[in-house]
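Section 3.1 - Work completed
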Amino acid sequence: MASGDILLRTGSMMVVRLLDAVAATSTNNGVWIDCEDYMVGSVVTTGATGAAVTDVRAFNDAGLAAPSNATAGVAIATAGAATDIQVQITALPRWLKASIPTLGTGTVTSIAVLRRGF
């Protein structure tokens, strides 16, 4: 698997691996996923150690093409060094990703669960 891969898709939900066991020994922009068909979601990011900082980012461009992964977007949740993220998103943006803006150690995995309704 790779960052951005869909793990499960049903009629009402989608589970996506935002970061797939990414080494936190360097920064990582993450991969944008399209949330257009979904209303709410949650993201869990684990594995950062040392000085590594992880975040969940949103971008609301309504264009059909995904933004460049280098596009920063807006941080909607940030975890300090060696802290996990668990965030509920009550209104999903058009595009969502997890990233590692500050390097450290550890192996970071981030999973998003998106739902069509409440």
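Second construct:
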Amino acid sequence: MHIGERVQQRRQHLRWTQEDLARESGVPQATISRIEKGQRRNPGADVIRRLARALGVTADWLIGMYEEEQDEDEPAQAVAD
């Protein structure tokens, strides 16, 4: 599963539109759309951080770092700063 699929899965789980995620994360909706479609496979660290924080997950989960250890339906929750 690539980052765009994870973003889309979590966003839909929250019942958010791309516009909702854009508003919460500060990442432009067009960028979110490209990430979800796989047209932007390697977003920068700042974009990943913003999306992860808005979606309430860790950046590690979002990029698939521990895919085999994590249940796909239960992403690692982000820790509050």
